[in-house]
Amino acid sequence: MLRIEVAERRTRLGRRHRLAPSSRAADAVQATESLVVLHATDPATVHLSVAARVPGSDVTTTESALYDDRALIRMLGMRRTVFVAPTPFAPVIQAACTDDIAVKQRKLLVKHLTEAGVSPDADGAGRWLRAVEESTATALTLRGSATAQELSQDEPRLRTRLAMATGKSYAAQPYVTSRVLFQLAAEGRIVRGRPLGTWLSGQHQWSPAEKWLPGGLGDKPPADEARARLARAWLDSFGPGTLADLQWWSGWTLGQTRKALKEVEAVEVDLDGTVGYVLPGDEAPEVEVEPWVAFLPSLDPTPMGWKDRGWYLGEHKSRLFDQTGNIGPTVWADGRIVGGWGQPESGEVRFQLLEDVGAETADQIEAEAGRWTSWLAGVRVTPRFRSPLEKILSQG
Asked: Whole-model pTM?
């Protein structure tokens, strides 16, 4: 079995993730394709992930790819997470991951509606949900695009309250609005459009999928074929990786993951005693890249691409991840994480190195911090999921 060393994996990361200067992407679409998808749970991540890989990019050009050209689309995908994906690849993600999520979330929502007293049984709650969904979809079609609040005015049943965690200290009674819209989006019927505020806003206009894109999301491949295509894309960007890496990243069952790897005829390789996989023909060493540094945002796809992160994270997990497994802003050098960064109220980018990188690399990192301070131009980005180190660097 061919052995692939950590150094080789770091070289691949630098080139394939468009982080080495000689490997930068031409635009937001190419940057996204290189990573399969961009994390979009935190809206700022999309813009910062692109800016880290596309020289000269700015918020306007990324927004244009999303909302004018619509070459990128915001959608629910792997692990029930919101991503930005290349629009032609959206049907693959839908069939490989989102369809299964939609089925599970419908069952859960029907259960919660029954507990809230919408109907005495699940069948009744299911019929109620279908009726509200159809009414909401019709209202959205008539408006062309709308906010959640506007749709709840058109369909008053969206203001029905759920009873969550009754009797607990964290009990809540949220409106069903967001859950219904989530369900319609998970089934590919509606699409998240422009944000209501700035590029940092997490609230969006909604549009019918057919209005946002001619023909909606397009024809979906069969689920097994879609999972194989998604596995191939992941291996092309993140390989070598393990079975556990792909299963975690995709959110699939163990059986689905094994079948997808078999379908793409993935080649086994040795990763320091652990079995990893690459695509057929991808066993040869990557072309070397020049030394590089990068500042990546919270939830960037690169550090969130593998379950086993020791080969690029080192001993820094406790400083850079929150308690639920979300990574904060990170500083990279030659394929490994060497520190973190944050912004105080004044807006400049501050960083802290967590290991000795040598004087030359430290100078590069200092210069990169200055570049990011200029790029952000006083805009302060506070990650939705905050790491311990980011919180410290953002004080003052």
From this structure: 0.95
